[in-house]
Write a structure and sequence with these properties.
Two copies of one chain form a homodimer. Chain A has about 325 residues and is α+β, with helices and mostly antiparallel strands. The first copy, chain A, is about 30% helix and about 25% strand.
């Protein structure tokens, strides 16, 4: 129940001229008559897998449910337009809350984030059952004049950039998602980016995916990776290094992007986002994920990441 | 956990000029730049509530998951464009099938229906967990030149029409959904319809909703209601009448529409659909749901229907 199913799915989904970008990127891109492309993505999060409802405030769970979808729109440099929310709620409530209190708390987490990103909650479906909480959100966006930012455009010589700092999201940031929507739109508008995605499963794993989608290789310089304070904190308990956490923890929801060298330098100089943009590596022709090994030498970098045992790679 | 939550939700959802039709109809209508409206709907179906996975072929469950959403597009007279599918699958599989076999079977149920209606499966998210099966589908469509068909346009004097025959869907038809997409588009194009919706929760209950949305009343003539063979079959076991089943069973996924009298007569004469269209009543000024009581007299008709204890009225 991993890659196999996605492969089966991709092989079995009918083709359509409307579907400009199908499974394999962060979201689908639909050609929308009469003009202008629609970007659509869906992501479900579930109790016990993506959060522990007995331990966390459901307001934060609601924020995460919408946030991960907005992060996928950001990954495409798409402007959010609307979201649809499907709730399946435990009939007996949870954590001392009734079913309705739970539903309201989830929406209270989503609504400010939706408003912040001018995203209409266009509708929803609310069900109860004997099972645990599952939230499925579909987010719709539109691409700007520069088009959707795909994973597949990186070229040898491009520089690899990342926003913010990575690692240790498990300590709380994985719930308090700040999707980099504004940042992605600004970068896409003002700079020439060749490829991009959000860091959801760990920098190393996601970088290896961007490399594979682009048909090139990526060198990540571990010494350059911006490490979040939470990664240090987690390392003090986990026995792993802060860098390990930054490379592999996942659920950072930062942007990973590539740009031609001169453009990347201008971007790094201007630092236009209010949050840091850091150069963490560069693209090479040789496929795979690499790290510097002294001089011009390279050695493989393991694509560590948060590959959920329960979750095959998302089709969108 | 009923109406209250939907009311809370409607009161708390931010307004937007993009959202032409929000919660309360069968689907949301979004003004989509630069022109042309997008129709979006989401509906989840879950094991033990909407089907019993141990007893039914998951291929049929997949068909239903997409079918109920396409039926909501049909209810708006919208042409399907795309669907996004979110699966949350039991980790141990079900009914002797592995998780992957289950996922594939669900898609095998959806794909022919999607193809039949030229609906692109634009993406999906596939998860597993310790809970039972939940399938959430978001369907996107576009309205034709006549605009979306709303619940709110019925006027006193309009005739009330229904496609097909009603009742007894529990015997199997609730899974083998035939969404009336083609029928709705044809009717919308060739006839003046004033209001419409799909019959998902029972003719009587849904008719009362259409009446309420339109600010008028509806008279349903029980003698005119087309009764499905399955309603007779179910009645032979349930101790209720076939008419009771036709009025209240729900999950018929037929179209309920209103049209001015002359237009309705033309439609009934032409019978353009290949399935029967039947006049089941008419609209009056006095709010509520009514039935003939001899001469010009009317008496109330109970809005029986399948109001799922587990499911508040859908926000879309």
């Amino acid at each position: 129940m991993e890659r196999e199913f996605v492969e089966w799915l991709v092989a079995n989904l009918p083709r359509s001229p409307l579907l400009r970008i199908g499974p394999g990127d962060d979201a689908a891109v639909l050609a929308w008559p009469p003009e202008g492309d629609l970007v659509a993505t869906t992501d479900a999060i579930t109790d016990q897998v993506d959060f522990l409802l007995e331990e966390v405030d459901p307001v934060r769970v609601g924020r995460k449910a919408l946030g991960v979808n907005l992060s996928d729109l950001a990954a495409m440099a798409a402007e959010p337009v609307a979201a649809l929310v499907s709730l399946v709620l435990p009939r007996r409530g949870a954590g001392g809350r009734s079913t309705q209190e739970l539903a309201e708390a989830i929406y209270r987490g989503m609504l400010p984030l939706a408003e912040q990103h001018a995203c209409v909650i266009a509708g929803g479906d609310t069900n109860t059952w004997d099972g645990p909480l599952a939230i499925s959100v579909t987010a719709l966006g539109r691409v700007g004049p520069s088009g959707a930012l795909l994973r597949s455009g990186a070229r040898p010589g491009d520089q690899v950039l990342v926003t913010g700092a990575l690692g240790g999201s498990l300590l709380g940031r994985h719930l308090d998602v700040e999707p980099r929507v504004r940042e992605a739109l600004l970068l896409r508008e003002r700079f020439e980016l060749t490829a991009g995605m959000d860091v959801s499963d760990g920098l190393a794993l996601d970088a290896s995916r961007l490399a594979a989608a682009s048909g090139c290789g990526l060198v990540i310089d571990p010494a350059a990776v911006p490490i979040a304070p939470a990664a240090h904190e987690l390392a003090s308990r986990s026995g792993r290094t802060p860098l390990d956490h930054a490379l592999g923890d996942g659920e950072d929801f930062e942007l990973l992007a590539t740009a031609p060298a001169a453009e990347a330098e201008r971007l790094l100089r201007e630092q236009p986002l209010g949050i840091p943009v850091t150069r963490v590596g560069w693209c090479i022709a040789e496929p795979g994920l690499w790290q510097p090994a002294g001089g011009d030498a390279l050695r493989p970098l393991a694509p560590t990441g948060y590959l959920h045992a329960d979750k095959p790679p998302s089709a969108t």
